[in-house]
Amino acid sequence: MLGYDISWAAFNIIEVMSSTKFTFKRTGYLAASQSFHNETEVLMLTTNMIRKDLNSQNIYDAGAAMTGLSCFVTPDLARDLANDVMTLLSSTKPYLRKKAVLLMYKIFLCFPDALRPAFARLKDKLEDLDPGVQSAAVNVICELARKNPKNYLSLAPVFFKLMTSSTNNWMLIKIIKLFGALTPLEPRLGKKLIEPLTNLIHSTSAMSLLYECINTVIAVLISISSGMPNHSASIQLCVQKLRILIEDSDQNLKYLGLLAMSKILKTHPKSVQAHKDLVLQCLDDKDESIRLRALDLLYGMVSKKNLMEIVKKLMLHMDKAEGTNYRDELLSKIIDICSQNNYQYITNFEWYVSILVEITRIEGTKHGALIASQMLDVAIRVPAIRSFAVSQMAVLLDNAHMLVGNTQRNSIYEVLYAAAWICGEFAEMLSDPRGTLEAMLKPKVTVLPPHIQGVYVQNIVKLYSRVVAQLEAEDNKEEAEALGELLVEKLPMFVQNANLEVQDRACGALQLIKQLIKLQSKGEVIGEELQALFSGELNPVAPKAQKKVPVPEGLDLDQWINEPPSESSSEEEVRGDIFVKSDHRMIQQNDVHKMPELTEEELEKRRKARKQEQANNPHYLKATTPSGKSGLISSDKYLQVTGNTSKSRKTKKTRKRSKKGKSVESESDEDSIRSVHVVTITEGEMPEGAKSSDDDEDERNSNDPHKALNIDLEELPLNNEDNVQSHPVSPLSTNAPGKVNLKDEKKKKRRGEKEHKEKTREKKDKSREKHKKKKQKEEDTDLVSSQLIEEKSKEEPVTNGLSPESADKNEQTEKQKNAENTKGQLDDIEFWLSPNDSSQRPNSELGAKVSSSPVPPSDLNLDSVKVKQEKEEKMSSKPEKTKKKKKEKERKSKKEKKKVREHHDSLLQEDSPKDKAEYEEAPGIATPSKEPGSSLAQTPMTPSMPPASKYRLLAEDKNMKLIYETRVLPNSSNQIVVSIIFTNQCGYHVKELEFNILDTLNTRLARGTDGNNQNSVKVPFQLPPGTTNEGQFAFDVDKVVMPQMLRGTFTYMIVTDGGSTHEKLDFKLHLPVSAYFIGSMYKRDTFTELLSSGDLSAKNTLILERVDYEFSHMLSKICFHCHFTVVEQVALSASLYSRSIQGDHVCLLAKQVNSKLTIDGKSTNSQLLSSILDEVKILLNPTENVSPCE
Amino acid sequence: MLQFMLLFSRQGKLRLQKWYVAHPDKQKKKITRELLAILLARKPKMCSFLEWKDLKIVYKRYASLYFCCAIDQNDNELLTLEIIHRYVELLDKYFGSVCELDIIFNFEKAYFILDELLLGGEIQETSKKNVLKAIAAQDLLQEDDAVEIALKELGLV
């Protein structure tokens, strides 16, 4: 504190922290947060004290503790206190909640295991009422998601909603940032985002938000690249806004604008190039960092057309620029810009060389070597430029003294290295070789660094040989001898050099020349022979050439030279069994064998790509014929290999080159060399299997706490509920109260008799529960409690897992659950992302699932299904989801007919809170059994309805009367129940009632397990005279969009006094479309949401010219007979809603003007809609007053 | 996430430091020294952001005090600037036109305010009112303590 070391006081600090006085406590925690760190040993002592403070009554005690903890949390503390902080997540005080939320992040970092159990709560906090808590939760999840985005993809809908509804800029920024991290994983998300983001960009006045939006839009556009038709508009918008930022007088905005611009540049260079003027302006900015940003941008903005202009501008800047750092940066940028992409943008190399020479005039640069290497590179690879380059270099050499100036922090003399070499190597192009030679022998040269002097010596000899040959050709022997003398005179200054190499070379050269002079004095011609010393040309060698040397046939580099010692391999095998790690080794071995194959393939691919590129690149650079000196690598071989291909392209290239006056021959050679060499791009070097996508994670420092947080959160809810429900300390140690629902029960049955007793108790509990439920069914709390039940029951398998096997089983179940769960969630996000086929998809998917699994799924599956459902319910409130859930449940209940009695009770408890009407109907309906149902109280669908019977006559004769009613099963998509009331009208006993239906393709009578389609179903009761009983029959239906007419027979036996007679009764069972309708919905929002969502694609209108009923009467009629709900009624118009058991929505708008009734219908299914409208028509049209069921 | 926050004067005196990532003291000192050198050398007209190692530094000068935050690469600079400003506003409200001396003599208050604004490097409360309310309530608690202690000393309790 205050810069003094107070580590000695650590213990005293803790004493102060533990004081009961807030003043001391506060100060103590402050001191601790400032001075403690991970290694502070006394921290171990604080655990209990902090826990006490966290649970303190005084919120500020807890606040201080959390603030402190956030600074010095260690893995130990995190582990021990995670649960206490988690409890605070649900504190009633927002002040504590928000601190706890933020603190959780720190805890996650130290103790990743805490993430899984805490995540659900954290997620809940996204919808916290307090904006502070909400934004804290967003912060934390955003932070988490940025590190491991894929685990948080499922939260996208929640965030999307927050984004579109929130006005808190602090939070919006985080959310948008989060989306920026998510979009690369899910391009469809990007498409969904573009619109709200562009809206925000347009509307917001906050620069920080604007900047964040632009950043994310850029990220989005990068991730979806070309998928969007109108993305150029968004880019345009971004660039426009950025321009405004850059033009702003605020330096910060300018800086950020340029920064963001450079991101766009990578993918959309065109749009940025339009703003070249602006960027060039920024080069004049006072702020260096802004200038540097602008330079970065320029790099990407150059093209062939504007390169010269830009570089000229930069050169001007360089003259003005103060500060060597910036000047250096500028210089290297110029070179980068020019040389990028293999000199792609340079059209005139003479210009480039002159630029390079010009640059050498800049004082005090440290990039001398860079310039030198550019000079060498260009001179070697662009033969056409050589003569020009040589002349320029000669000038440089002449003016060497200017460059040598002050050698401190100035490396420009390096260019002399290049100049000397170029002049020597291409001496034949020198206009005045002798003059250059003399320039190189100036005494000032000895000031140069040794490696340059070495090059000087070597090239002096080269030049000498050239000049001598020339003089001899002119027969000017005296001159030639004089030159030799000059050298002999001057070279000793190199001989005296301290550097060994210079000495060595100089001595050699000196002796050589002395020898030559001797020969010359004998009158011999030495020029020719001398030149032979330096004949041949150096070719550029591709960086990876060495590696490309082909392996001679018959040589297997992977083969063992010696047999590996047998011991080690056996040891390895043993290890393989014992240690997991040795897997790694095995893999490596495998890789080694794979390698040759892969690289070859890859090579071939690259080679092709490269050739393609070359063919399209007019600026492809050439060198000349390879020969002797390139012997190090066998370049001839490559020539042969690729010779053929290169020749085909030769002509084309030649034309281009010949304009610049290049030799044809050299081209083809160089061409082939390049094509072989350049093919070899780095990747061969990479270890096998290392994909670029893995890299990020792999490269992440193993110490990085975020790596540990890469937890698949899809698995969360399960463990989480385990944990949350019990005391959070130990998820496995709790004994839950004995409430079960069916799946646990089933599981337990399988587990054996052991738990039989417990079960009976549970059943009792359950029925009690049921009663309670009924009483409070109208209260909202139902929902909560039923969820609790479900959660508790979920926990059961864990807590009841007494034997090891069952524990095992549980584990398996869990796994399976997780898998299913993940899938469910994925489905869900898919669903969210593709709104267009929303209502159809889940159904069809489900249908497929159902039909593909005729065998009852094991209860493992049921479990998972249930989890999935629950998950879905949490994720979205859309009705389809819940319906799906119901369907699933129904399926489940079907599959467990034996136990239906026990089970459906608990099912009902879950369903009941959602809809009162359904609940009331449920007891009878949910039982698709053929047992006689007890007489049922029928509740009308719509409260306004008078209690009336929906039963219709099915068949009647003198003995029997059958009336029926259809009922939907609230959670089944492919079943309805027909309830038939049998009335014995005669005075005799009736028995052996049998009921049969001629199945159609679409609708089948569920006949139980034996499954013969033709068998009739026995009605399991007899009717004494004058009695009535009810039987229920389930029908499997495929499609529900058409009304159905089923033929059936009913046989019975009348036991008269004189014996018994068989009687038969034929009937037709009419199943109108409305029989499949569930006339209920959850909220009014759903209706408006539905209408605005655009899912209701089908439209139809029904117009009835004359309706005799009152409007309200008519509504009641529709509601009653066709199972609709009135959503809203205003005067003489009303909107009605219903949905089929297969999840198709139907919305009707009924309007009455005078006696004319118009019904506009919208639905997700057009056939369904027309069927239902027909039905309504028949229902309401008095002229055709034929009851649809007769 | 904020990595740390430093307050220092024009003369290079560190006035306040808050580290949201634990470092040993030695490294803290080193970082501070380096940053001080870099930031003090910058001219007033220069922009408030610079890239430093793998972090981004956002700083702003208020009178003679520099407020400097280090953030992750992908954090929003402007938002950080906003946080700094919010903090300065809070200090100003709390002390009543704050000056460097206020922070020197009441450094613990400055820390408390910062702790209410930020927690673990994340913004905790964006409402100035709420922060000040929390601070005031805690100060009140302290005063109660002080009164109690005083009474005890006088033997009245």
UniProtKB/TrEMBL annotation, chain A:
Gene3D superfamilies: Leucine-rich Repeat Variant
Extent of Basic and acidic residues compositional bias: 586-597, 700-709, 752-768, 806-820, 865-880, 902-919
Protein name listed in UniProt: AP-3 complex subunit delta-1-like
Annotated Basic residues bias: 647-661, 881-901
Ranges of Polar residues composition bias in the record: 720-736
PANTHER family per record: AP-3 COMPLEX SUBUNIT DELTA-1, DELTA ADAPTIN-RELATED
Assigned protein family: Belongs to the adaptor complexes large subunit family.
Renumbered residue ranges of the record's region Disordered: 553-574, 586-947
Domain AP-3 complex subunit delta: start-end pairs: 598-714
Subcellular location: Endomembrane system
Domain of life (superkingdom): Eukaryota
Keywords: Membrane, Protein transport, Repeat, Transport
Pfam families listed in its UniProt record: Adaptin_N, AP3D1, Mu_AP3
From TrEMBL, chain B:
Keywords: Cytoplasmic vesicle, Golgi apparatus, Membrane, Protein transport, Transport
Species the sequence originates in: Limulus polyphemus
Keyword set includes Transport: yes
A Pfam entry, by short name: Clat_adaptor_s
Family statement: Belongs to the adaptor complexes small subunit family.
Domain AP complex mu/sigma subunit: 1-140
Protein name (record): AP complex subunit sigma
Transport is among the record's keywords: yes
Main location per the UniProt record: membrane
Localization per record: Cytoplasmic vesicle membrane; Golgi apparatus
Stored PANTHER family: ADAPTOR COMPLEXES SMALL SUBUNIT FAMILY (PTHR11753)
